[in-house]
Write a structure and sequence with these properties.
This protein is mainly alpha-helical and 267 residues long. The protein has helices at 2-25, 30-56, 65-87, 93-109, 119-122, 125-157, 162-166, 170-203, 211-233, 237-262. It is flat, with a radius of gyration of 19 Å.
Length: 267
């Protein structure tokens, strides 16, 4: 039953993605309402799928990458709906919903025989949850940074087109970028700490310096520098936007590294 709801969810997110992308260039606001409706229904279907899978489990099994990526997609849509209903910024869906769809499709593409997470992840579910929540924060920072650069480019080139009229003000995007990092960084920090504790319990070592752990620490240091720069030095606007885009690329590389290792022998 859960598989059926996941298929329905992907279909709705796909349709919403197409509709939201069309909304970027089409002056009609009807598309935003249609897109939001499909996204909201997809979110309900996604929630049912997650709950159904959890209740159908006969034991408390360690989280797999399918569950982690699906959870990331679910939280990302939840955050989008919260921002949408609070600020009525429909255009954000044109960037977040495709990202959520990509995550869910990636989860579905993984074979059912994909190994569960390595011992560093097996001890604590909370590690995966906190890490994914932190990643959502960085994803929103990435989206806001991307929109900032697009809006800034339109302003400088004086192209006051449909997209320009729909994108939020630069100050709002800069604020959203900072708040997303402020929220995501502590969550990632807690995720790394619980992961290290998990490694100590299962392997007798907090860190074994494998590639994905090393890259995760590099990503943490990068965001620490960005956050410090924003809160103390006063980094703003375009510099912060570029840095959060680069940082999110590091997050993606970390996830890819962990997924690739899961197909090899567990060390």
């Amino acid at each position: 039953m859960a598989a059926v709801f996941f298929v329905v969810t992907m279909a709705l997110y796909f349709a919403a993605t197409i509709s939201y992308l069309a909304y970027l260039i089409w002056p009609s606001e009807v598309l935003s309402k249609v897109s939001l409706g499909m996204t909201a229904i997809g979110f309900v279907s996604h929630t049912v799928a997650l709950v159904t899978r959890m209740t159908a489990a006969t034991d408390v099994s360690p989280p797999g990458f399918q569950e982690a990526l699906s959870f990331f997609s679910w939280v990302l849509i939840l955050v989008f709906l919260g921002v949408e209903f609070r600020h009525r910024l429909h255009v954000i869906g044109s960037f977040i919903v495709p990202l959520a769809l990509l995550s869910l499709v990636s989860a579905a593409a993984l074979p059912e025989t994909t190994p569960t997470l390595t011992p560093v992840f097996r001890t604590l579910w909370v590690h995966v949850t906190l890490s994914m929540l932190g990643t959502v924060g960085f994803a929103v920072a990435f989206v806001s940074g991307l929109m900032y650069l697009i809006q800034d480019g339109l302003l400088k080139s004086k192209r006051f087109n449909v997209l320009y009229s729909k994108l939020p003000a630069l100050d709002f995007l800069d604020h959203l970028n900072q708040q997303s990092i402020v929220t995501g960084f502590p969550l990632l920090t807690l995720g790394i700490i619980t992961g290290a504790l998990s490694a100590e319990f299962s392997r007798g070592s907090y860190v074994n310096w494998n590639p994905e752990q090393t890259w995760a620490l590099v990503t943490w240091v990068f965001y620490f520098v960005v956050l410090t720069g924003r809160l103390t030095v006063g980094w703003r606007a375009k510099r912060a936007a570029y840095l959060t885009i680069i940082g999110f690329a590091g997050v993606i590389l970390t996830l890819i590294g962990v997924v690739l290792k899961s197909h090899g022998p567990v060390s």
